[in-house]
Specification:
Chain lengths: 369, 369, 369, 369
């Protein structure tokens, strides 16, 4: 495969400021490195936060994009052996670049790697850090020696393949961390892409009662939640979620509650209220650094609740996510609402965040022309 | 042993209202029942809450006292076999009277028994519920068929024997629930009887760095914490606890944090701040039903913390607590500051709550004359 | 509902000796007791062992049958409240009668109850122990105060309802004990009723690769395993199971292996061989008390295997089993091969054990006429 | 520090064939590498196995020694940052050289690293693999980029420092893997260095009853076990271990059993017999690849035992082991019986294996002259 000299890329130069550029490909690929021809890059809520400039210490200019899927265009000998892939293979790339040497990496917690500083991972490095192509909003992505990647079948479309990211999150947050198992009752707060993927994870794990809540504006997403396996959905603007969960569970309340909603802190309190005594609450949504009101320590104590904050995802979850996508078991295409050309990245971000009147998106993937 | 016809008992008739009465002993003891001659009854913070009338639905008039130790005066045949004891044996009695049939009891969570309603246990039942002698502030205690009790050696003084209760709490909250193990760093917020017992539990579990915090007024308790095995103590009024824990741990912060402080919500936030990424926070203190200020969901998420509320204690913790008391390994007598006559119950309660100027108590036991 | 004075029952008087008798119903039902009109009673491998007299200390004469499903004919007031059922309700009854007071019962391990001696449970008590009706091979079953039972919908046929027992076993042994989760590879050794139920449990738990092994004579059962969700089946008489598992898993081997085969010890060695390094082996089959040949300690050490023996089942597994049966999600009727009249109990037992030439059974239920 | 051109080293050329050689130091140390001046190297049972040539695929000629402690003589810039040490620091070096990229390394199981083949670690690589100095029986040890090492205080003697290895094993095998906790009863089969270290680990973990078994010839070791904290010791040649454990535990038997004995398979059966129902057995001893006789599957099933094979150790255990050595809490010098000059390596090995009549060793360290 002969490679071009440059790659088109969307470069973010500051808050809400994106531009299309042509950047040079790495002059050479060392034995421990690789180069990915990007086929698609998924977009999630944190892409929009980054676009808004709400994350701390973003090293502009940079190429966003931390959910890339593509084809290995070039690969060094050592990397090929380590990663178990070769040129031409289709892979999904994890966002993180773990150091491999720190206490967390050694202990299997590379999500919490302390050997690399700040947000060090794809989508968060300056184009001035050689070789520059560190983001998925581009035709080509440099593959650093610390990359963690996973083969994914070519039978899946590139757009659906990028769902490895939210589905991995659903699997870790709604199954692995809380230990959801056969027969459990689970409440999922928030019906966005991570909420829907949590429904799938919970159903796969054998949960016998899956309840999803959302706002009135989420009507379509809640319908999709039911299609993916939710037994009940609750519009929290029209119904009292605590009372509804009590009715549905005949007073037993939820074994597990997962909050994947963004911004609003109310679901944190709802989570505590709908969990059963001895139940588990997973907090996975970021709330823009505002404090939670009405958080009562005594309620957590008296109910003997377990509350677990979760941030990242790792291969333990990405691997079953990829196998599940490949299986075709769920109509994931219904969750993937938009495939948008790389050049339209800004539109895509605004669309995801409901900035575009009259149009609603759940999952969006950017594809290079 | 010939029994008297009546038992002296302290009866609470309302908030801050106690009186000494003579109540009849049960006319007969059935095959599944027993009668305890109380040797001592421990007092803890919740006794004071009860005295103040701050607990909901207290069925006055009642005999308080949920930490009794005594001698079996009479016992039915079935009870003797079930409990594995006979008349004359010294035992420690658990406060709870689990139904044995509900989902929680069947599942080993009798702490959360839902088969009996309200605060059903020793110290919380009306004297009008036959046979009346339901509390440890008395010479005799009725032993209901649902009683959970544990033999305890006569080589221990009755007062020290009542420490089975706070030491059981320390073992469950500071070791079992968080899984404290060899080499861990643990921070214990609050140096009262449960905090001191948590120090002992953490030391027994092999924690290699035990840090205890308190107020300036807790100076004596903090000194005792060091004597029991704490490596460092922090006066939070004079020092910044977060900075001190950072210094002590060389930036690693705490694997486990246990909040056993009462009333103040600040330790909840301190707990979140001094825990390491991926660490565990145990919430064991009740805060008078006021909301926690400055609880940031995003911090729990970004640090991937696990927060566990804990309320009760069960035999898994009481048994090793009793063995530890019997071993004489720790100078527990230094924690037991006061033995007070039954008649002086009101004084004892006020003393524990610092209502008596110039005197300080850590652990108090009431003893019938 | 007016009750007859007597109940027909199959009484076992010794090894391979059964007779039909008429036994009196209890003269009265106390407040903590009940009476069940048996609708069906499942039969499993241990029924045959009992029939052969191979279990120790069987207190003949007795009524066998430990997997009964029926309708509450009469119930005391206390029992109704404890068990949450009333006369006319359909229930599945657990075999065990846990004491509720021993260390194991208190700790949630009532499967290992030490408060009652020997095989104390339905199907294993002498008819001379009042009130005599202790077994499921009868029209009526006495419900002791220690009974653990579960409501089950009348929309399910009685025969399928008795599958709560093997399906509960599948859920505990193939999911709960080994912690089988989304994406796991599991090998199930033995395609009998418990093996097939293990397939269902593993599939419900999200296992992405389920492999079942059997003998050539098990062809039909292996086909059914595939229908229930097994991805691969292995005839161990024609194929090398270790090599096949290596091929199927691309060298990764199995995360979890469950041995539910009876008598033969070879599957124990196969389990150790097909498990991956760090994998888990569940031993659930009884082997007639013969030692395992070629058990190499060094292999268990070098592979860092976890081996777990499992014996009983409890409500944690029976409850989701019943919900799954009620859901109608699996064609369980294909596993239930025979419904046989109570009078033909001996034939049923011989049929299950392949004593009847030319006929094969998987699951059999006895029904009173 | 100026370095010599060569290092003395003990080179094994075949079974029972050792010779002293002078080998060149690496010509240069790259940025990711280092060089250790060995201060002492511990010897354990597997050193003797290696000496006998009983391990498969030993790539002779090689320098044995996988428990080295020493001073960083030279270190590259990247390595210094990764490992958090600099020239002049005293460190303990783990035997394994994990690849950092395979599934096991990523998942925190670097003990089971599959990215490097065979016994790839210090003490097991040919001197023909550059730069040759791969073993601890030498004055200098090359530090490969994949090295895992830990700072250890200079206040500890080099010989005692090498106890990080068996003490790490004791902590992982007797505490971490079985989850030994406050109040547990533990039986340790075998009083060698790993057995004695298991006693220390169990005591640190708060086990309230520690029982150690050995042969009559182990009298001195058993006495030392009691000194380190064992409550009871059993000479299995004079006493029936099952009956003794029953007596000591008043019939409750052991929560946890750890077999650290070598060669004999009998302790495997003893472990199964002295474990309580629902207990855990850790198998840590290698038995020369002979099958276990009288291993009854049915006993493991009926007792619902958990059996765990354990092979290696990792930083989770080495770190608390080093902290414990530094604390000086235990008189470890009583376990360290011999410090022997590098040149006398062969004598040391024979001494450890009781080949030298009239002399007994527990722990031996080799020190370069």
């Amino acid at each position: 495969m002969s490679l071009p000299a440059t790659s088109r890329a969307i470069v973010q130069t500051g808050p809400r400021s994106l531009e299309l550029r042509e950047l040079p490909l790495p002059s050479s690929i060392g034995p421990e490195e690789g180069l990915l021809r990007v086929e698609a890059c998924g977009i999630c809520g944190s892409d929009y936060e980054q676009y808004q400039g709400l994350m701390p210490n973003l090293p502009f200019p940079l190429i966003p994009g931390h959910e890339p899927v593509g084809t290995i265009a070039e690969i060094g000998e050592v990397a090929a052996q380590r990663w178990g892939v070769r040129a031409g293979d289709r892979v999904a790339v994890e966002a993180l670049l773990p150091c491999g040497f720190c206490r967390q990496c050694r202990g299997g917690e590379y999500r919490l790697c302390s050997g690399r500083k700040g947000l060090s991972g794809y989508g968060y490095l300056s184009i001035e850090t050689p070789p520059g192509l560190w983001g998925g909003y581009a035709e080509y992505l440099y593959l650093d020696p610390h990359t963690v990647l996973h083969p994914i079948s070519r039978d899946v479309s590139p757009e659906l393949a990028t769902l490895f990211n939210p589905l991995g999150a659903g699997i870790r947050w709604a199954q692995q961390v809380p230990g959801t198992k056969l027969g459990d009752t689970i409440v999922i707060l928030g019906p966005g892409q991570r909420g829907l993927c949590s429904v799938i994870a919970a159903r796969e794990a054998g949960a016998s009662c899956i309840i999803v809540s959302g706002l009135s504006v989420d009507e379509r997403k809640l319908a999709l939640a039911r299609e993916f396996g939710a037994h009940h959905t609750i519009d929290v603007e029209r119904e009292d979620i605590v009372q509804r969960v009590r009715e549905i569970t005949d007073g037993a309340m939820a074994d597990i509650v997962v909050d994947v909603s963004a911004i609003s802190n109310e679901p944190v309190i709802q989570a505590i209220d709908v969990a059963r005594r001895g139940g588990t609450v997973v907090l996975a949504g970021m709330k823009g650094r505002r404090p939670v009101e009405n958080f009562y320590n005594d309620r957590v104590v008296a109910k003997e609740l377990t509350i677990k904050g979760v941030f990242g995802v790792d291969f333990h979850a990405y691997e079953p996510a990829i196998r599940l996508i490949e299986s075709g078991k769920y109509p994931l295409e219904k969750m993937h609402t938009h495939t948008i050309a790389l050049e339209e990245a800004e539109h895509a971000l605004q669309l995801l965040a409901r900035e575009i009147p009259g149009e609603e998106a759940i999952h969006i993937a950017l594809v290079p022309g």
